[in-house]
Predict the structure.
Amino acid sequence: MTETVGVLALQGDFREHIFILRSIGADAIEVRTPADLAKVSRLVIPGGESTVIDKLSRIFEVAEPIKQRIKEGMPVYGTCAGLIMLASEIGGAMDGQQNFGGMDVTVERNAFGAQLESFETDLDFKGIEDAPVKAVFIRAPIVSRVGDKVEVLSSLPNGDVVAVRQNNLLGTSFHPEISGDSRVHEYFLNM
Ligand code: GLN
């Protein structure tokens, strides 16, 4: 049986993730409900707006089942707002903002400020050695604290951490699904 990869499709750029996952041969489906979640063995949480993904995931009653699956070891990849959804601590959170958690990191929302809201760069990425990864940052968070069990996979030249992994969980501040570089998704599918 081929495995099915879910993309949380409540808000944000879930279509781009579905597209890139299918381009590398994955069976990718949109996840909005607990019944959808039950069909998948992996989950991608897209970029978008973490406060909205938080609220909708609670309204659609997928937040608790996702937390449970994370605890059970399901591989999950969060990009940008998706990374914020996985962090144990959020700097600059809205009042009452919740998330799934699971990764022992602190992220700072909108860390690049108004001057440098969005940019594109090439990054070295541990585990993807053939060439730098093309990374698009859009009102991105940075990882300001990394727990003992968390591996840093990529940083900006100034040292800001932008890609992390803790066992079954992968998070990037940037959006490889937008630059069309499928290697981070391939890395995820091999986790
Ligand atoms: N700034 C957004 C947030 O806090 C994330 C932006 C993005 O996902 N591109 O959710």
Observations:
- The chain has seven helices and twelve strands.
